[in-house]
Automatic annotation (TrEMBL):
GO terms for cellular component: plasma membrane. It comes from Nocardiopsis metallicus. Its main location: membrane. Coiled coil: none annotated. InterPro entries: Transgly_assoc. It is found in: Cell membrane. It comes from the Bacteria. Belongs to the UPF0410 family. This is Putative membrane protein YeaQ/YmgE (Transglycosylase-associated protein family).
Amino acid sequence: MEITGIISALIVGLIIGALGRLVVPGKQHLPIWLTLLLGIVAALLGGWIASFFTGVWLFVLIIQVLVAAAIVYLADGMYSKNASAA
């Protein structure tokens, strides 16, 4: 991945995190800053996964949103268990 791809993934990652949060049904317990951070991770990871298949931007975006939704869902489950235990 080139430096321009990394920079665009960071910027798009903020949006991807918000979209991932919208895709997950129900109330999330994650703070918004953590959701955005997870979106950046999902954008990088989703871009990397999609690069194995194609470079079509729409496909990459869909993969990034799906990865973000999965990460937000998993992190929310762990976060809510930790919050209720404290």
